[in-house]
Write a structure and sequence with these properties.
By secondary structure, this protein is an alpha/beta fold. It has nine helices and twelve strands.
């Protein structure tokens, strides 16, 4: 069994799209794989309870037989930072509970992709953040970089911080709209300066089959 933590240079950079593409790639290679988003804010009320768009997408690309609550056990309604949303809901984001959710998935799957919220150093509460939680588990990290103005600085700072705590297994370049002028130059710079392999470039507007075909699974 392998677990990788999927983070991004910021919120809205395409972590879920990349995670789902990796899950589809894994399924095409015959692996039993699943996604895990332990904490999600910005959830909507449904007849079945609070549901998050990213959590539903991960569930759809996971091996069959899972419930929504297994993929996203902590669903929070306010579309704000998770630790603030949890405080407003009177919920403690407990790393031990997050670990238990992961352990149940890991026992039944060959690959688990754990998706964070926002960027690498988003808080969970107090002085503890996602970075602390992931480092304590020793999970390798995949960094998703949105190819847009400012991405070089954001990517290098994120990679540097990740490498202080754990292994950077690779990174994914996501070509988000609007098109970045001379994006290839920025990509080449990041390839030279990030000390981890480029796992692929996600084309703008690519469906999941095309996105999966563009990626290599981390190793």
């Amino acid at each position: 069994m392998s677990t990788y933590f999927i983070t991004g240079t910021d919120t809205g950079v395409g972590k879920t799209h990349a995670s789902c593409a990796l899950l589809r790639r894994a399924r095409h290679q015959g692996l039993r794989a699943c996604g895990y988003k332990p904490v999600a804010s910005g959830c909507e009320r449904t007849p079945d309870g609070l549901r998050n768009e990213d959590g539903l997408a991960l569930l759809a690309e996971s091996a069959p037989g899972l419930s929504y609550a297994q993929v996203n056990p902590l669903a929070l309604e306010p579309a704000i930072a998770p630790h603030v949303a949890a405080r407003e809901a009177g919920i403690v984001l407990d790393p031990a509970a997050m670990n238990a959710g992961h352990a149940a998935l890991a026992a039944a799957h060959e690959l688990v992709l754990v998706e964070g919220a926002g960027g690498w150093r988003v808080p969970l509460g107090g002085t503890v953040g996602f970075d602390d939680w992931v480092a304590a588990q020793g999970w390798p990290v995949v960094l998703v970089v949105a190819m847009r103005l400012g991405c070089i600085n954001h990517a290098l700072l994120s990679a540097e911080s990740i490498l202080r705590r754990t292994r950077l297994a690779g990174w994914i370049a996501n070509r988000v709209p609007p098109a970045m002028p001379q994006w290839q130059d920025s990509l080449d710079t990041l390839v030279r300066q990030i000390p981890a392999p480029l796992l692929g470039v996600l084309p703008t507007g690519a469906d999941l089959d095309a996105a999966a075909a563009a990626l290599t699974l981390p190793g």
